[in-house]
Amino acid sequence: MKADGTFTVYIQISLNRTVKKISLGFSVLEKDFDLKNQRVKSSNQYHKDYNLLIEKKLADINTIEVNYRLSDRVITLDALVSELNNPTARIDFIKFWEQEMERQKEILKEGTYRQQMTVLNKVKSFKSPLFFYEIDENYINDLKAYCKKKLKNNENTIATTIKSFKKYLHIANKKGIQSPIEFSDIKNKSFRGNRTFLLPEEIKTLDEYWNSKFIPSIYRNILARFLFACFTGIRFKDVYKLTPENFIDESVVFTAEKNSKFQRIKLNETAKKYLYDDFFTTNSTNEYTNRELKEIAKLCNIQKKLTFHVSRHTFATNFLMCGGRIEHLQKILAHSKIEETMIYVGIVETITNVQILNMDDILK
What is the pLDDT of residue 189? Predict the structure, then answer.
């Protein structure tokens, strides 16, 4: 009993004839505690809050017990108390993912790390904590529905989210942490063929805006880099790291951040014209650049969702449409497999077929 006449409330846990008491962090008068129902009486002004604490602690104990049982692990009283006081990454998938992200911080490319952190935060916003025993088919379907309906993500973005989710569940499963549905059971659609690109007339429209007297300087800088990438196929991170020293003998030379490959790309005259003085002086994040590109698209009446990566798809499709060879495109894009590059062949064939059918309009 405390000096004020109250008694500390404990939860008593018994396992294999060993007993431990865990304080709930509050105390009440003896007359305010219902021994039969093991709850604080309504005579205490804080009875609702205190009873919620009791319910929460009991639920946590049950969660830990269920997780150990589903993982075919034997639980000890010390392990139970330890998990209860400080839930570990073997119980909560979110905590596991956070620890793995911290461990891989020095391994992952900066862009990959930021992308996977974005996915982690998205998953946390849907449900946190997320106990391993809760990861089943229903949860995966609910997560996809949340991304589509609440976050308004497109199918490609949802597929990327599930891909990252599977990666860290795979790591957990390899470490012996079981879940009702394992990473290999999660089906994920591929939308690699669904790539936004600009046609020659749309590139021309953006070029005319870049040359206009009325374009704001920040738009001009962003558009210069975007159009430069439309004629070289270079990714956002690599374009924004370029300095005058990267330009040698009519070529741009650099080491690609994504795959660490050294690249030398011959510059055509169109790409060179975007290398004006301010090209190297302004910097911005990928997110900010993509937001501004969407505004530029609206101003130019282009009905496509522009991101910086659209420039890479634009380069690839137009390179082939202009008669470029697929093996040369593979080298420029630094694809390790020709199958990655062949996707653009299918896109170009589709465009060609549509344009042939459009000839029906000539005599109309």
Answer: 72
